[in-house]
Automatic annotation (TrEMBL):
The protein's name in its UniProt record: Aspartate aminotransferase family protein
A Pfam family: Aminotran_3
UniProt key word Transferase: yes
Cofactor: pyridoxal 5'-phosphate
Family assignment from sequence similarity: Belongs to the class-III pyridoxal-phosphate-dependent aminotransferase family.
Organism placement in taxonomy: Bacteria, Pseudomonadati, Pseudomonadota, Alphaproteobacteria, Rhodobacterales
Record-linked Gene3D superfamilies: Aspartate Aminotransferase, domain 1 (3.90.1150.10), Type I PLP-dependent aspartate aminotransferase-like (Major domain) (3.40.640.10)
Signal peptide: none
Entry annotated with the keyword Cell division: no
Length: 427
């Protein structure tokens, strides 16, 4: 690998990666011509694969018309059309769409809309947003306050108002049967207990990833969980926010993952697969009654300069059209089942794999030091980092989450683009 030149850029660490040259379909090439299979779609983003010609053409057409129109000065056809399409894909009544540039902004917007709804409806005492541990909802301070992942939140605790957390329903860790509705009830009822403990009149919202992302490694909720969560929120006037930043956009086989359980939230956040890496884009979608109450009360006090950027919206619309015309959600279901079975097969050979889970092409496997007890890997074990490097060396990109002896789990997300074929699974 050609060593990358010294750089002014920095991200989390000093580690440098190869210089990307180009990407097509499920493959990426570095400047040395080495080919990589994009087994995680970047960070579960590039859902329809790289360099799709129809998306590029739609973006080119939009670029020739305009690349920016400030939302306070102009409406754009691209944003209008994508909003209409997004509302049509969302649960009934969720007709209002607010565009942003990424997942953290979408979650931040959802929390702030919920708060303004409480103010608009005379419930100023509601401000607590309950979430789960572990969970990941974004890096901005508002989204971080509801994130349940100590390694990322601890440095900023002093700057955030602590928000209550309940355990995520990790039945595999607790030795419970996820297909038993009693298990779903057991975990969902922790929300009710927490609402009662906090004082129901102070609780604004509950935020949940319908299928978990990097934090839980593709955690699928146990039977009955999602419906019971909905019931509990309704019982106490608590808004339900679905964070579909990673699970939305078709990867689980449905456009929004919560469709698997036929449950609708009050507000949802989507990003990653929404424009599938062709442009920075996300959206908050909210129920009419919430948006109307806030707008009647003087307006939504929130917004971002790049919101509704026409180029990003044109990309988003073209991505959804590709998903629909190519039947990519159906492919995600079929290829996801195949890939999951193949990963599960590896458990026979490798006792270090403790669990394989996920829905559609949002899949993960977890490494443990003892499968029967689901004991986490010891802090200093080198196998995990070594596996990442071995995969990289062989030209396979997978997404890892290492918690170094913590109980958040050590897992890999295996999430190739939804255009993946049987041959890619073999590879
Ligand atoms: N919410 C979930 C469930 C996510 O997986 C992520 C990113 O991984 C975010 C929010 C934050 O999105 P972004 O990194 O685009 O700000």
């Amino acid at each position: 690998m050609t060593a990358p030149p010294p750089s002014h850029l920095f991200y989390q660490t000093r580690r440098r990666r190869p210089m990307l040259d180009q990407a097509r379909g499920v493959y990426m090439w570095d400047v040395d011509g080495k080919r990589y299979l994009d087994g995680s779609s970047g960070a579960m983003v590039c859902n329809i694969g790289h360099s799709n010609p129809r998306v590029l053409e739609a973006m080119r057409r939009q670029m020739e018309k305009s690349t920016f129109g400030y939302r306070l000065h102009f409406e754009t056809e691209a944003a209008e059309r994508l909003a209409e399409k997004t509302a049509a894909l969302s649960p009934p009544g969720m007709e209002k769409v607010f565009f942003v540039s990424g997942g953290s902004e979408a979650v931040e917007s959802a929390i702030k809309l919920a708060r303004q709804y409480a103010l608009a409806t005379g419930e100023a005492q509601r401000w607590k947003v309950i979430s789960r541990y572990p969970s990941y909802h974004g890096s901005t301070l508002g989204a971080l306050a509801v994130t349940g992942y100590t390694p990322m939140t601890a440095p900023f605790d002093a700057m955030m108002r602590p928000m209550p957390k309940i355990p995520a329903p990790r039945a595999y860790l607790d030795g419970l049967d996820a297909s038993d509705p009693e298990t779903g009830r057991h975990y969902a009822d922790k929300l009710e207990a927490r609402i009662l403990e906090e004082g129901p009149e102070t609780v604004l919202a509950f935020i949940v990833e319908p299928v978990g992302g990097a934090s839980t490694g593709a955690l699928v909720p146990p039977a009955g969980y999602m419906a019971r969560i909905r019931e509990i929120c309704d019982r106490y006037g608590v808004l339900l926010i679905h964070d579909e930043v990673m699970s939305g956009g078709g990867r689980t086989g449905r456009f929004f993952a919560a469709e698997h359980w036929n449950v609708a939230p009050d507000i949802l956040a989507v990003s990653k697969g929404f424009a599938a890496g062709y442009a920075p884009l996300g959206a908050m979608v909210a129920h009419d009654r919430i948006v109307e109450a806030v707008l009647d009360d003087g307006g939504f006090i929130h917004g971002y300069t790049y919101a509704g950027n026409p180029l990003a919206c044109a990309a988003g619309l073209a991505v959804i059209e590709e998903i629909e015309t190519q039947g990519l959600m159906e492919n995600a279901t079929r290829i996801g089942a195949l890939l999951k079975a193949r990963l599960a097969g590896l458990m026979n050979r490798f006792p270090i794999i403790g669990d394989v889970r996920g829905e559609g092409l949002l899949l993960a496997f977890e490494l443990v030091s003892d499968r029967a007890a689901m004991t986490p890997l010891p802090r200093e074990v080198k196998a995990f980092d070594r596996l990442v490097e071995i995969a990289y060396g062989h030209g396979l990109i997978i997404y890892s989450r290492r918690t170094r002896g913590g109980h958040e789990g050590d897992h890999f997300l295996v999430c190739p683009p939804m255009i993946a074929t049987d041959e890619h699974v073999d590879e």
